[in-house]
């Protein structure tokens, strides 16, 4: 048997940025990429040309992340821009999300898989309504780490009292939103203070620069350490033998493990695991694989195979926090499809937390009654199997992103 039991594991931090209009978010990200030597020469030359064409004396580093032509021309960010870079200590996947309130759904998309969120605040304006909304989204998505980057400190003379006042204000709203904590960092993206290198202008600040924090913050989203969850995507038949194919979205599975199939509740043991076409003794999330069970069981696409003592909740009454994504409103009584991992079931919207309807970018709570049971985890415990989307059964359009709350 060929052993591929230990997949190559690279320390990667997924993080998202969020800030209100003109808080300097794109400049901060551009500075981070530029000062960490993560910008190619031709990219920098393109930014210099674009900056010159707009009459600017120095390169506008915001253009490094405002990747769409329309965004460059208008000087705004309207879409999620993903960037990949690395330092000697860690690799990074950056989701630069829009700051406008009408693009809250884009922030939800960018932050849904993030280990960390950087929330930007203009030191001159302090915490505003959109800042509070960003904190609420980070709390809703259970982002493990949050950084409050107080930007444009150069425009308030690097004043410590201003920084402390903003931190205190944000702390109150963070507690109301349910954020467990946050790390405040005073920065000037334009000048480079505390972005990659610590600032000489703020000797009163003794914490790390932003990049130093990003390089050292613990990556808590170790998918292989969570309960084992294997949604079945395909059933492959070889004569009398069935192979169940899919992605192990969390946890670890080993040959010989006792497993349960949901929603039937049937049990068996793992007789074999194949990864990349070769037999393996063990598989860890997020590997794609096929399983063979020791017994003939009625397993089909949409079923979930689990192992270990922490079983998902099998329920037809779904309570969740949601962000509505579609332009068409969601109302009580609407009939929808719920897509949860590889399973799709019909459902009816029974309650919207007292609201009449949810419109695009609204955050709220929902109660659904599904036609068939779903094997759900609390989103706070297992993000992949605690998340779902609502789909319009008429045209297949995505309506709403949901995060299951089994304690509600």
Write a concise keyword list for the protein shown above.
globular; disordered N terminus; Rossmann fold; alpha+beta; six-stranded mixed β-sheet; eight-stranded antiparallel β-sheet; 408 residues; Elongation Factor Tu (Ef-tu), domain 3; 3 domains
Please give a structural write-up:
The structure is a single chain. With 408 residues, this protein is of the alpha+beta class. The chain folds into three domains: 12-216, 3-Layer(aba) Sandwich (Rossmann fold), CATH 3.40.50.300; 223-307, Beta Barrel (Elongation Factor Tu (Ef-tu), domain 3); 313-404, Elongation Factor Tu (Ef-tu), domain 3. Helix content is 19%, strand content 35%. The chain has eight helices and 24 strands. The protein has helices at 25-35, 41-53, 69-74, 104-111, 129-140, 160-177, 210-216, 383-386, and strands at 12-19, 81-86, 91-96, 116-122, 145-151, 183-186, 228-231, 234-238, 241-247, 252-254, 258-262, 267-275, 278-280, 282-284, 288-293, 304-307, 313-324, 330-331, 335-340, 343-351, 357-358, 363-376, 387-391, 398-404. The strands form five sheets. Strands 7, 8, 9, 11, 12, 13, 15 and 16 form an eight-stranded antiparallel sheet that branches. Strands 2-3-1-4-5-6 form a six-stranded mixed sheet, sandwiched between helices. The longest helix is centred in the middle third of the chain and has 18 residues, at 160-177. The radius of gyration is 23 Å and the shape is globular. Residues 1-10 and 68-78 have low confidence and may be disordered.
């Amino acid at each position: 048997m060929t052993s591929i039991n230990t997949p190559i594991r690279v320390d990667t931090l997924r993080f998202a940025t969020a800030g209100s209009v003109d808080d300097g978010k794109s400049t901060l990200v551009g500075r981070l990429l530029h000062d960490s030597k993560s910008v190619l020469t031709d990219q920098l030359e393109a930014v210099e040309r674009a900056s010159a064409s707009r009459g600017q004396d120095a390169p506008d580093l915001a253009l490094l992340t405002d990747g769409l032509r329309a965004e460059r021309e208008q000087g705004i960010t309207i879409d999620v821009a993903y960037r990949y870079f690395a330092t000697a200590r860690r690799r990074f996947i950056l989701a630069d999300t829009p700051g406008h309130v009408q693009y809250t759904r884009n922030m939800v998309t960018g932050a849904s898989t993030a280990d960390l969120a950087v929330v930007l605040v203009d030191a001159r304006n302090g915490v505003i309504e959109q800042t509070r909304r960003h904190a609420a989204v980070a709390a809703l998505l259970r982002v493990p780490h949050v950084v409050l980057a107080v930007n444009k400190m150069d425009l308030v003379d690097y004043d410590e009292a201003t920084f402390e006042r903003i931190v205190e204000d944000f702390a109150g709203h963070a507690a109301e939103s349910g954020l467990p904590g946050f790390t405040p960092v005073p920065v000037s993206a334009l000048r480079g203070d505390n972005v990659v290198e610590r600032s000489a202008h703020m000797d009163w600040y003794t914490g790390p620069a932003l990049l130093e924090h990003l390089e050292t913050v613990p990556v808590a989203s170790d998918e292989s350490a969570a309960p084992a969850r294997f949604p079945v995507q395909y059933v492959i038949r070889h004569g009398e033998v069935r192979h169940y194919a899919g992605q192990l979205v969390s946890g670890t599975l080993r040959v010989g493990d006792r497993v349960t199939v949901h929603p039937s509740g049937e049990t068996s043991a793992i007789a074999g695991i194949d990864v990349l076409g070769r037999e393996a003794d063990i598989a860890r999330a997020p590997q794609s694989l096929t399983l063979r069970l020791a017994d003939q069981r009625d397993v089909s696409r949409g079923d979930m195979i689990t192992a270990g003592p922490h079983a998902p909740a099998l329920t037809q009454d779904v309570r969740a926090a949601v962000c509505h994504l579609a332009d068409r409103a969601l109302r009580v009584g609407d009939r929808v499809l719920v897509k949860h991992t590889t399973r799709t079931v019909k459902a009816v919207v029974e309650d919207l937390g007292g609201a009449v309807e949810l419109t695009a970018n609204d955050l709220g709570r929902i109660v659904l009654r599904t036609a068939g049971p779903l094997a759900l985890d609390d989103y706070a415990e297992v993000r992949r199997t605690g998340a779902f989307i609502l789909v319009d059964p008429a045209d297949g359009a995505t309506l709403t992103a949901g995060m299951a709350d089994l304690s509600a």
